[in-house]
Amino acid sequence: MMGLREGGVMVRAGLTTERVVQAGAELADDLGFAELTASTLARRLGVKVPSLYSHVGGTQDLRTRVALLALAELADRAALAVAGRSGKEALVALAESYRGYAREHPGRYAATRMRLDTATAMASAGPRHSQLTRAILRGYHLAEAEQNHAVRLIGSVIHGYIELESAGGFDHSLPDATESWNRALDVVDIALRNWP
């Protein structure tokens, strides 16, 4: 396939930053986010590694861009899930949207846990996740001073459970992981309704 010269580098025709990042996200889902590198992506795309450098600045930049994509996708999914709901119904919808995304896109979900520098994090969809959680808390009438604690509790339970489940932590014991997941959400709901 003919290439175009961009910045002194031959680039495969049709290759754009958006396509490179999307392909990186798909590769992360296939191989695991930790295995995502510029060289593995170049092999997947059938190009030389330098061809990617007009679109991404190497492995770290690629991973950051995949993380930003995943945060945005997940925020959109969560917003749709909680729209029009409140209280426990909203809490469960948020949690299920995260768990579903992690099952469908394990590499992308792992990317959402990537530590970003402050400026990148603040410009990302990350703050939307916090805002969604705070919106849920309105249904529980928590005092403003307690909301950060509650947001952290909800995040710890949801993401902690998902990561343990993804790692196979519940595969060899009963009851079924979904039963425990539902009980965990019941407990979070009770804690929020009876916040000290």
From TrEMBL:
<protein>
    <submittedName>
        <fullName>TetR family transcriptional regulator</fullName>
    </submittedName>
</protein>
<dbReference type="Pfam" id="PF13305">
    <property type="entry name" value="TetR_C_33"/>
</dbReference>
<dbReference type="InterPro" id="IPR036271">
    <property type="entry name" value="Tet_transcr_reg_TetR-rel_C_sf"/>
</dbReference>
<keyword id="KW-0805">Transcription regulation</keyword>
<keyword id="KW-0804">Transcription</keyword>
<dbReference type="InterPro" id="IPR050109">
    <property type="entry name" value="HTH-type_TetR-like_transc_reg"/>
</dbReference>
<feature type="DNA-binding region" description="H-T-H motif">
    <location>
        <begin position="37"/>
        <end position="56"/>
    </location>
</feature>
<dbReference type="InterPro" id="IPR009057">
    <property type="entry name" value="Homeodomain-like_sf"/>
</dbReference>
<dbReference type="InterPro" id="IPR025996">
    <property type="entry name" value="MT1864/Rv1816-like_C"/>
</dbReference>
<keyword id="KW-0238">DNA-binding</keyword>
<feature type="domain" description="HTH tetR-type">
    <location>
        <begin position="14"/>
        <end position="74"/>
    </location>
</feature>
<dbReference type="InterPro" id="IPR001647">
    <property type="entry name" value="HTH_TetR"/>
</dbReference>
